[in-house]
User: Fold this.
Amino acid sequence: MFSTFEPYRIKAVEPIPLTTRDNRQKYLEEVAFNPNRLKANQVTIDFLTDSGSNALSCKQWSAMMQADESYAGADSFYTFESTVKAITGFPFIVPVHQGRAAEKILFKVLLSEAEVAYSNGFFDTTREHILQNKIKAINIDTETESRDFKGNIDCRKLEEMLSKEDQKVGVVVMTITNGERGGLPVSISNIKEASAICRKHNVFFYADACRFAENTWFVKTREKGFMDKTPSQIALEMFNEFDGCIISAKKDGLCNIGGIFATRQREVYEKFSEECILAEGHITYGGLAGRDLEAIAVGLTEALDEHYLQHRIEMVQEFGRMLEFNGATILEPGGHAIFIDAEKALSHIPRNQHPAWALTCALYVEGGIRAYEYGNLKFGYKDENGKEAFLHRELVRLAIPRRVYTMSHLKYVAEVFGKIMQNASNVRGLTIIRFPSFLGLFEIEMKEV
Assistant:
């Protein structure tokens, strides 16, 4: 039973675009059946991503008004730096304009002589940046799953992979929470075991910690020995196991832009800083305005508030139950999104007609809801020889922005899904007209079969 309420009052409101079904059908046809290309004012409920779509607090707005916009050495940088140091324990901190900027620079620095990188689940841009360096990016899925921490890396496999003498491993990346596995958490004990293995083999161990705060709540409520610790204490213990981290402040930074690189390795920091100056700007602003640095400093602190985290996680869990009540088969809910099994929802659509994409289109036409395909189009559906090989489940992700929607919005979405299920046979599959080379989901063009 959902028992918590929003631990805040709403101080400003924004009208939601309301459109007709006929108009939505027309809008979708105009963008070649790609909801990613819709205008925001054509979308009623936007679950495309939880990245950068957060609502800022009054404290964040207040801090932004007091920002120092000096080019170098601004007071706002030192406010940002001290906050990140306190949360992570890392001594060397560099801001960047968003998380993918940090990973692009970091992997250029770390992977110059490497052949392979491993992870519990690479995010799509993380994987692409590794591939751009002509390095293999391999996920190590967990076979002996922890019931409560299904985002874990398989440490037995990790030890086996790092023991191979015929490869040069550049880095092991622990994604927290594990977006590849539906935003499910990683345990502190698993992080510590993986850290020890990496140290044994002298391999860099970095965290992709975009949703680190949500992970601390799962640890507090599920892992033995952490119930009496605060999310901040858990975060510090977690980061202590890594050589460094990259963070998109657009998630658990509760901001609309911004990213973080943090490390305890001076040599890596110095190399990163040199690249940052070329790509992002001076290392005390990293492509951000002083007001962004101030907002991130406040947002990181607010994201570790226990009342906020409890509400955030329970809200997602309850949303999953509402969708199941309306006929959805979902993955176990994580901390930021619900993943719907589109093949079960639209069993009449074959894989080569992309049922997950078809469901995203149906959600938009029926209710103005924008969702994200998390299936074979996102992860690639062709093998090394260019032949069709559907390797991923056909999922649809509903990513929930932080502090933006209330339970009544989520109830509406669940009811729209239920209406789609009542007439599921009317939903049509799609075929590809154009597919760009890199991360093609954003510009792909489709047509109905």
User: Anything to note?
Assistant: The longest strand covers residues 169-175.
